[in-house]
């Protein structure tokens, strides 16, 4: 059997990197795509994959990624994206919102569009990394909840559009994940604020937990489509209902 190919965007850290590692363990040749070349080259060396420098907001990078991936792609993990800020609508920084839309929505759509022929040829799986933010809005979440809700709608449209094609469309929606950079980026490098997100939560999810879920969705038999996987830590009953234990 020929080697199965997986493309992971946003592979330089967090859920993307953990997923690249996990899929390599599962026998995939993983194409690690991200902006930070040094990081993905190191990762590709570690897991025997390939690195493609790719900013998903740049059409020329997306074209290069599709060319590197070749004729057949078994799995696309469209993971690149993230949150910027927690501004209320009244104070929102629209430049940050535009960046979020460009990466989380257009970047995901562009990755899918470019790789769709290769995914269809291979009877492959598209997995997007959404968020529980797509399901329930919260104060300060309008920008991020909005983009993740857009991804969710896009996946629903895509599944309908591809109903007669041999390609599957899956969305993994994580809740609270203590990953390398998610909260740090969201709070513009403010480590203390980033840490507060997880304060008192005994066991937030890890990026490896989500990588497990993605690997599951990507490796079920070909007739099985996992439409959506919503994954939260046990301590998080809803986005705003988190069990926190005293920290001091
Ligand atoms: C991250 C989950 O609750 O911070 O995607 O929006 S949340």
Automatic annotation (TrEMBL):
Q: Which Pfam families match?
A: adh_short
What name has this protein been given in UniProt?
A: SDR family oxidoreductase
Instruction: Spell out the family assignment given in the record's similarity comment.
Output: Belongs to the short-chain dehydrogenases/reductases (SDR) family.
Q: Which superkingdom is the protein from?
A: Bacteria
Single GO molecular function = oxidoreductase activity, acting on the CH-OH group of donors, NAD or NADP as acceptor
**Classification via SUPFAM superfamilies:** NAD(P)-binding Rossmann-fold domains
Keywords on this record? Oxidoreductase
InterPro entries (UniProt xref): NAD(P)-bd_dom_sf (IPR036291), SDR_fam (IPR002347)
Determine if Nucleus is one of this entry's keywords: no
């Amino acid at each position: 059997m020929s080697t199965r190919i997986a493309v992971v965007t946003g592979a330089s850290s967090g859920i993307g990197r953990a997923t690249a590692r996990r899929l390599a363990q599962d026998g995939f040749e993983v194409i690690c795509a991200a902006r930070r070349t040094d990081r993905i080259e190191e990762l590709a060396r570690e897991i025997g994959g390939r690195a493609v420098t790719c900013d998903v907001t740049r059409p020329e990078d997306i074209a290069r990624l599709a060319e590197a991936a070749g004729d057949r792609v078994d799995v696309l993990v469209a993971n690149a994206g993230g949150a910027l800020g927690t501004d209320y609508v009244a104070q929102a920084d629209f430049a940050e919102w535009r960046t979020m839309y460009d990466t989380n929505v257009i970047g995901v759509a562009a990755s899918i569009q470019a790789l769709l022929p290769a995914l269809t040829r291979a009877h492959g799986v598209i997995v997007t990394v959404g968020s529980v933010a797509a399901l329930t809005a919260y104060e300060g979440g309008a920008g991020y909840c909005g983009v993740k809700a857009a991804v969710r709608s896009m996946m629903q449209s895509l599944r309908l559009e591809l109903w007669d094609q041999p390609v599957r469309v899956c969305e993994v929606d994580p809740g609270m994940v203590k990953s390398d950079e998610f909260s740090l980026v969201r709070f513009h490098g403010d480590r203390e604020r980033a840490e507060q997100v997880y304060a008192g939560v005994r066991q937030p999810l890890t990026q490896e937990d989500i990588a497990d879920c993605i690997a599951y969705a990507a490796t079920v038999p070909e007739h099985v489509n996992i439409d959506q996987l919503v994954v939260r830590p046990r301590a998080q009953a809803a986005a705003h209902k988190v069990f926190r234990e005293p920290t001091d």
